[in-house]
Amino acid sequence: MLNINRKLAKLEQEGAYIKVGLVGAGQMGRGMISQIESMKGMRVVMTADLVVDNITNAYKHAGVNAANIVETDDAQVASKAVQDHNVVATTDSKLVTSLPEIDVVVDATGVPNIGAEIAWDSILNNKHIVMLNVEADVTVGPLLKKMADASGVVYTGSAGDEPGAIMELYDFADAMGFEVVALGKGKNNPLNLEANPDTAAEEAKAKGSAPKMLASFQDGTKTMVEMNAVANATGFLPDQPGMHGFKGSVSELPGIFMEKDKGGQLNGRGIVDYVNGVAPGVFAIIASDKEEVNAEMKYLKMGDGPNYVLYRPYHLTSLETPLSIAKAYLDREATIAPYYGLQGETVTVAKKDLEAGEHLDSIGGFTVYGKLLKSSEAKDQNALPLGLVDRNVVLKKSIKKGEVITYDDVEQTKESTIWKLRSIQDREF
Prior knowledge:
Elements lengths: L3 H10 L4 E6 L3 H11 L4 E7 L3 H10 L7 E3 L3 H9 L3 E4 L2 H6 L5 E4 L4 H13 L3 E4 L2 H18 L3 E3 L4 H14 L3 E9 L13 H7 L3 H8 L2 H14 L2 E2 L7 E2 L5 H4 L14 E6 L5 E6 L3 H9 L7 E6 L8 H11 L12 E7 L17 E7 H7 L11 E3 L14 E3 L4 H12 L1
Parallel strand pairs: 1-2, 1-5, 2-4, 3-4, 5-6, 6-7, 8-11, 9-11, 10-11
Antiparallel strand pairs: 8-12, 12-13, 14-15, 16-17
Helix pairs in contact: 2-3, 6-7, 6-16, 7-11, 7-16, 8-11
Pfam families: DRL_cat, NAD_binding_3, SAF
GO molecular function: NADP binding; oxidoreductase activity
């Protein structure tokens, strides 16, 4: 089988290319546009964003001539532009998901409800959908995957995102017959459950990132969501609510990820977790019951066993997304998807004391953070999935800091697409 680079080169030699539609021209989207402009057999032919200048600047920085950028919200104008090998900048995301010329849609918005809408519309229009929106995926991904399968298109997470990078290690080890004991990622910063845009502002400014986004990493929410996606894809579960969050180096991981009665720190096997000290990498802890395999692993300097670590010290976020685009289009395969349905649930926890009538904000905000539970634990508590939280969700009662917020604790001022899809998913599964 040809590798992706050779397949893309062959596509270009034949005078064709994968036509990509992108929603979201923020940091991830901009990087992806530039990366794809350097590739063979693929192009971002249309991008949607609320600010058109974000799109035109992204294309110009990628080396696209200004004369070849068509700004329009008109479907016929957009179609002709793509047919003429120009690129389109639009404020209408539905134009991206519906335009006949587009083969694969990428959601890079980071907003759960918008991501759910984009994925749903893409599937209804028989387009492959690549999600750079893990929050939407862990909330309604099982339903979206089922609908995509029924429609004959691919629903997938992205290579380069940590769940996708972990899945590649898992597939590698599982294909060879190793037992996969644990899957995990490094965390870049100490856990601070009280982090918010104000406390993160100074560091965010120094890093050139959004305070809200940085706060979502600091308060652990992004880590919970990412490992939730891995749980849904593999059937692995958190060893305890919120995971352990061990501290250690790469060489220490095989010993840490053993059961307590064997000298390690786990209650069981087949788990997801995170570690402070190995960021920005991802890892898989593997084992074998075969004497010859263990002897070979020792010879290969993989350690003395019984556990070994496969470690990838990088993930290139949206710069790797084109690999998932190509895999979906050329091979009809996902990089990562919720094959096991809803195994984990990232539930909503009060970041501070909250009052009745208060509007919740969203991920990385001032009111809530996420905590990964087994889906059965979340169901028993009637816990509110974090991906359903936005400014339209209002508390019906006061909630103490650190308490899990339930469906019974909230009401909506306006029903969103992701709530409707989650309701369907809960009935279907």
